[in-house]
Amino acid sequence: MPLNIEPLNPDKQFAARVTGLDIANGVSREIAACIENAIDKYAVLVFPDQRITDDQQYRFSEHFGAMETATGDINAQADRRLSMDINDISNLDSNGQVRDRSDRARLFGLGNMLWHSDSSFKATPAKFSLLSARIVPEQGGNTEFSDMRRAWDDLDTELQRECLDLICEHSQIYSRGKLGFDDFTDDERQKWQPVLQRLVREHPRTQRLSLFLSSHIGTIQGWPVPEARLFISDLTEHATQADYVYAHNWHQWDLLMWDNRVVMHRARRYDHTKKRDLHRTTVAGDGPTHVELAADHARTN
User: Fold this and answer.
1) Which fold has domain 4-69+77-300?
2) What is the pLDDT of residues 242-269, one digit of tens each?
3) C-alpha to C-alpha distance for 144 and 51, rounded to whole angstroms
């Protein structure tokens, strides 16, 4: 069967379904190049019924760049279910059992239900994320994606100019703090010291501008904190309105791939007593964003 890429909403050009390949058997460089061209256009790709192992998922992900290690969760390495190559996006402990409602790692993981971009709390944020559904609850637990390219395009010109050169501070301390979670060790507070990220990014392949928002943002350089947080809140409300959002209803063995440079995402609530087990591989970005230059054409529009 030939590779087929079908937009899920042709009018929006946001999110597409990809069929006609078996990732478990590996893909060629040519097919990987077609997939990267598709994600440049659609930002989110859905690969249904991909029955893959962690090793197969990792090898597929390597087609798209250098890989991150899973250093963003709160579990000690000795307590991990998965290798450091795989982000454990689940409600399971190291024995594969559902975590208690008050479990520290579960409470930390609730931050995934806030709008965010993966690894924006790292000096070099993520390029692509690939998330494989191994166990999903019968109801709830959808993942929503917001198109930050359209969110940028629809801002008025004056607001675009105001955003263009702003630099934000990102940290998981900030995002978890919004939920009232502050149970961090001194080592964790040091590990997640704020990093700088641009508020507006230019995509290196398409040259499209987009907002780079995330719940990890705590302030804007040079702004009073209350004013900065209100401004980011207003932008986030704009960027996550329904017309910009694709909501994915998971089926077992779905594999989703998205471009963190142009989308935000969040998980939705589900019955916390039911197992939900998804495995994420993460392709690293090219470098810190705060040294990127905003596009010259945007300055003159």
Assistant:
1) Double-stranded beta-helix (3.60.130)
2) 999 999 999 999 999 999 999 999 999 9
3) 22
